[in-house]
Amino acid sequence: MKFVFAWFWIIALIFVNSCVEIKRQYNGWSCTADTDCLAGYVCDLDNSVCVSCIDHDDDHYGQGLQCLGADCDDSNPEVNLDCSSITHITKIDCSVPTCIDNDGDGVGDGTCGNSSCVIATTDSNDNDSRRCTNLDSDTCDDCNSGKWDPFKDGSDGQDCGGGVVTPTDTDNDGVDDIDDPYPNDPTRCRDVDKDTCDDCSKVRNPPDPYNDGQDSNDNGICDLATWYDTNWQYLKNITLNRAAQNTNLSNFPVLIATTDIDLANKATSRGNDIVFTTVDGKTTLNWEIERWDKSSGQLIAWVKIPTLSGSGNTIISMYYGNSNASSQQNPTGVWDINYMGVWHLANNTNTGTASILDSTANHNNGTMENAISEKRVDNAKVGYGVAFDGTNDLINVGSNPSLDNLSIYTFSGWMITDGLGTGVKQRFINKTPSGTYDYGQNQFSIFRDSDNEYLYARRYRDTSELGVISPSASVPLSQWNHVVAVFDVPNDSAEIWINGVQRGAIDSTGAGGIKDDASYDLLIGNNPGASRGFAGTLDEWRISNTARSSAWIITSFNNQNDPSSFYVFSNEEPIPN
After folding, report:
1. Average pLDDT for runs of 10 along the chain of length 577
2. What number of other Cβ atoms are within 10 A of residue 507's Cβ?
3. DSSP 556
4. Phi and psi for 367 in degrees, rounded to 5?
């Protein structure tokens, strides 16, 4: 009996000593000298506790296992191991209870000795909340649950409660989605150093909390150098998909179409405070608002992107929340100098002779003719559109030097039709004389041949024509189609595109120069004799005096056909206090 009793006390003493060692190592064991601490830890004589790094000047250099290195002057943050000058970006005060814990699992990175963390050990991976340490030696990381808890980390034989989980980082900012409050915004992730500058704002993958902004007056608040204007209270970043064919596109007009409850609640009734900038907030972009409905938060806007990347995402910012703002948009600045006309077909609200506005600086406005009823379609492909009756409806843009004698150009727009109309040659765009087929005509049509729809475009020369035709039945009926005609007459080149795919083949060609067509009006939806009426709805028609590239055409289709898949909005960010 005495023998058993003696062994009981021996085992109890070993258990107590083991607990003391753990407490001594991980919970700031009191000390009077380094010998009172475990290997790698030093005694902070100012506080009489064992710590992993004594760093009086907060430059991460000092004495201890978790210091970056020795410090030859621990009173000067500008001097470290080899006494060379360094830049001390973020000042961390370890004299007050501080736990530098990047991944929020309760285990610190050792910067301030971890004395104020859940446990005073150092995180083995401070960028992954599921990896930190394994004090109970059960092969399961103590942070397997996402927080330090060795009692809920799984157990041997149970795959540690799920084993190693493959992390997902949707926005590729170096922070897993499980730890990222903004998993779709690579410029925002967290603020572990509590300096009010997001750790992903400048450096990403991995984020750098010591290079995320500046606090020039050392007041603990991030400078607002990246905020557009302090009169604007809210911000959302917009991450745009890359351009098609790995090609950068310059001055590309991106469609932003969204219904946003935050905008409904906080933007002004006229949308005057909606502003688009580069992601750093320093450069205001050009944009045009085609539709704004405050009651629902529906916004349809066109934003000119200086460079839409073909190799990666492009990020812009949208600011709002300024009740005193006047209109900030610049519609004519959205459309580059090659656009001769851009008609959203959005403003004809009355019958008869409604004006159809051109958004470019050329002011090629048109007039709705022969309309006998309301022609505006509220929910066309992009906002509003115009319905044509297939008989005598047309829009007359007139003649303007910017539209005359085009030899290299692009027509584009959206159309939907059931195939019915006057004649077999229903015109989208037409610049021809009345009643005769004189050389000099320029037209883009949909043809009907035994109920098989196809596209045809031609440009007449002095004595010949250059034409291009799409295959039979290449235009689906009763659905929206993005149709494009591209001409380079001097080089005998012509293309037709349908829904982002090139479908046309040269049908006719010949010699001769461009005949003067300045005396002919540009018509949309019909010919001068009203005998080629288009039956259906048109939306977003444009003319450029350049041959738009395949990357431009495909990206335009992708963006306009499904705007919601072309970009991702971040969560709302209020202005920093």
Report:
1. 48 45 48 78 81 75 71 62 41 68 85 78 84 76 78 55 60 75 77 69 66 58 70 93 91 97 96 93 93 96 96 90 94 96 78 78 90 77 90 89 92 86 72 61 61 77 80 86 92 92 80 78 85 87 96 97 93 80
2. 16
3. H
4. -125, 130
- Distance spanning both ends of the chain, measured CA to CA: 72
SS3 label, residue 18: helix
SS3 string, 294-311, reads CCCCEEEEEEEEEEECCC
- For 459, the 3-state DSSP assignment is strand
Question: ∠ CA(49), CA(51), CA(52), 5° rounding?
Answer: 170
Separation in Å, CA 345 to CA 66, 141, 266, 366 = 66, 62, 28, 10
User: What are the backbone dihedrals phi and psi of residue 18, each rounded to the nearest 5 degrees, phi first?
Assistant: -65, -45
Residues 6+ apart with CB under 8 A from 553: 412, 484, 486, 497, 500
For residue 508, give every residue at least 6 positions away whose Cβ sits within 8 Å of its Cβ, in sequence order, or none. Answer: 458, 464, 465, 466, 467
Give the bridge partners for 524, in sequence order: 395, 429
Distance between CA atoms of 167 and 180, rounded to whole angstroms? 12
Instruction: Give the closest residue to 459 by CA, choosing from 521, 393, 411.
Output: 411
Q: How far apart are CA 74 and CA 59, in angstroms?
A: 8
Q: Are 434 and 528 in contact (CB under 8 A)?
A: yes
HSE-CB at 435 with a 13 A cutoff on CA atoms is 0
Report residue 247 as tokens: 């090609």
> What tokens were used for 520?
């002919």
CA 354/CA 369 separation, integer angstroms: 8
One-letter amino acid of 135: L
Which two structure tokens, joined as six digits, stand for 165?
């989980």
Is the distance from CB of 167 to CB of 178 less than 8 angstroms?
yes
User: CA-based Rg of the chain, rounded to a whole angstrom?
Assistant: 34
